[in-house]
Protein 1
Amino acid sequence: MTQTERFHILDKEVLPGETKTVNLKIAQLHTMTELKIPIIVSHSDVKGPVVLLSAGLHGDEFNGIETVRQIIRKKINRPKKGTIICIPVINVFGFVNQSREFPDGRDLNRVFPGSREGSLASQFAYNLMEHIIPLVDYIIDFHAGGSSRFNAPQLRIEENQPELENLANAFQTPFLLYSKNIEGSFRESCDKLGKKYLLFEGGKSLDINKKIVQEAIDGTLRFLNHLDMLRDEFEVPKVDNQMIYIQDSTWIRADLSGLFQSISPTGTFVEEGQTIAWITDPYGSVEVPVLAPNSGYIINENQGPIAFQGDAIFHISTALIAKELN
């Protein structure tokens, strides 16, 4: 079915078959320079859903930014039907400063849905929720681990959400982690509006990992194909292994401070009691093993060379769900 409707966003029109960049003004710098976020909109001439691909909510999480950049560069964002909106960098402030936070020190992903008259971060969250999110049906938001903590490629959704489970099964990453929405998060606010939101996690901050980026791109291709939005010229990537569904998980913390040497990379299955890392002193007199508290998959690994007592050093699954989703 051919559509003739124009797509309206931020007082701009995008014609059927057109790709256009529009700008969302978010603030003015102390230099009086306006700070704007580029938003790339591709509108098909065939009626269909609206998908948002977003990254850089935390400005130091470069894997997601690179993922959306490549999607645009390879023209994957030009849909067979419907509309795809790409925001490669949401938190431009953080991206410029290579920082997680906004200039006001706030974590943007804890102030949603925001306020018209709140803090700088809150005002921006408000504008995103007011002007962009009402237009979309589906959202894939790309994230990475922080503070040298490397996430295995994974999707996160709440339990008992059949449609989200089907979408996650279409995307297919090595792991699907059931986790509750965090108060003030982008995910929670979108969920309250009935938007179907997948959160992708992979890699660590201040880093671009080619395997993680490719995993995210492949999943997006499968997701768009599931919605019949992927153009025929693109091949749908095959999945080598069935996704592992993690119902519950826990953090392992360091019992003492010292040099940290992990021997269990993300994605590894370990047995209860297995040595998964070592913590040592620099003088050769202390060498303490870190033992797995239970059998499970390592889904996050601290790749920093030093651990302090109480630091989170691994994220490990504690309960799996043995099923295949339709």
Protein 2
Amino acid sequence: MEVKEIMELVDQGLMLPLMEEFYTIQGEGYHKGTAAYFIRIGGCDVGCHWCDVKESWNAALHPPTSVEAIVENAAKYSDTIVVTGGEPLTWDMTPLTVLLKARNLKTHIETSGAYPLTGTWDWICLSPKKNKAPVGDIHNKAHELKVIVYNRDDLRFAEEHASKVGPDCLLYLQPEWSVREKVTPYIVEYVMANPKWKVSLQTHKYLNIP
């Protein structure tokens, strides 16, 4: 297949730059502790300086893979599929989720919302970033708002986005891993004073699993 043809299929969402895929335990947010199959899509221009998967940023480093092959692998392991990145909404997620739903699989996405929402999702975890604001009406569609806390100003930022989500959206504050010892105490203090929020931890890192 020629490069031009491959890129056209990527643009249509029929192939995706697949960084990695793995079966593990969801470590964060509402579904923590749940077995899930993760599909990590390459490509992200949000540019968070504390990102722990910077190798995902350059989509060109990750092989374009047909969504049929991705779904075939995913269906072998779990009925819960988590699509993450990178920023998965860089690409059209519709073809992927059509095939996942055809297998009666639960579709979850973890996104900054920096690009328009595509695809059909059973669970949307919106994790907005200061570098590139969410677009469209994803706040109203999010089931879970997860704000990564690197410094105290991120608490203000969290409230800014909490004011935009729907009344049933779950609210999480998660310490950024590299500064967790510094920020966790004031996250705990903040959640105790504002119990609409919950603390999310990267429990998979404590468990030493992917």
